[in-house]
Design a protein that fits this description.
The protein is mainly α. β1 and β2 form a beta hairpin.
Length: about 260
């Protein structure tokens, strides 16, 4: 199972490098089901792995000037505040036994996994559905929609803080469809936002959870190697063709987690 886990860590990075998202949604299931890590701790580990991997991808986009720093900052500030509140107060406050009856019990571990599975389904849908072609040219909006960017940033921060996922499947459509940012710039901006949110979220969690640093650096290093491979493959393989297939994979995993946890 551990061997499969290390292989999956490569796929997480490849997905981020090749299609600009999706990989981080697999990190928690990989840590829980392949490495046997408790779900609450897995969300903390996921923040570091996702943050480190996204940082590597974001740097490459910034070097190519394919990231909107202004949007990233406006988006990132409310996200950071929300991540801090969630990781410092909300997640530690969730009791280990949330609900218990004679026939049913809901633990913190199960609750987080069910929440994660529910999030995976719209994430999969966003990768499966076809979008209109984006020519890569910016169609400037009349004004920079600060309320929308701030609200979306806070929503992504809530998602990142609760389940340790980057939220690229929310960020990229928001940047492309509402702010009219070209898709490549949206991917670079998304990676920058994810990197900041995830790494700060991990720092906010350090006082509440133990960390196996050797294991964490090993998985993060493998995922970072994967994103390097993915970025190289992106020049020869059309990520748009692979994205729906990866979306179906994520959808099947999400439904599988739901069934597993409910039946258990």
């Amino acid at each position: 199972m551990e061997t499969a886990g290390y292989f999956a860590a490569v796929l997480i990075g490849i997905s981020l490098g090749l299609i600009g998202g999706g990989g981080s949604i697999l990190t928690v299931p990989v840590l829980v089901y392949l490495f046997g890590i408790h779900a609450a701790l897995a969300t903390t580990y996921s923040l570091f792995i996702v943050g480190a991997t996204s940082t590597m991808g974001a740097v490459s986009y910034l070097i190519r000037k394919q990231a909107d720093v202004k949007t990233g900052l406006v988006f990132g500030i409310p996200s950071i505040i929300t991540v801090y509140v969630v990781r410092s107060f909300l997640v530690p406050a969730i009791p280990e036994m949330i609900l218990q009856t004679e026939r049913f019990s809901l633990t913190k571990n199960t609750f987080l996994l069910l929440l994660f599975a529910v999030v995976m389904i719209p994430a999969a849908y966003s990768m499966i559905r076809k979008r209109k072609n984006n020519t890569g040219t910016r169609i400037a909006p009349a004004t920079f929609n600060y309320p929308f960017v701030i609200a979306t940033g806070a929503g992504v921060g809530l998602l990142t803080g609760m389940i340790g996922a980057g939220g690229g499947f929310l960020i990229i459509p928001a940047l492309v469809n509402f702010l009219k940012i070209p898709i490549k710039t949206a991917i670079g901006t998304s990676l920058m936002i994810i990197a900041i949110n995830a790494l700060l979220g991990f720092l906010f969690s350090l006082g509440y959870t133990p960390v196996a640093w050797v294991f964490l650096f090993k998985i993060a290093g493998i995922a970072m190697a994967g994103i390097w491979i993915g970025s190289k493959l992106a020049s020869t393989i059309d990520g748009k063709k692979l994205k729906p297939a990866f979306g179906w994979f994520v959808l099947i995993m999400g439904i599988g987690i739901l069934l597993r946890e409910i039946l258990a």
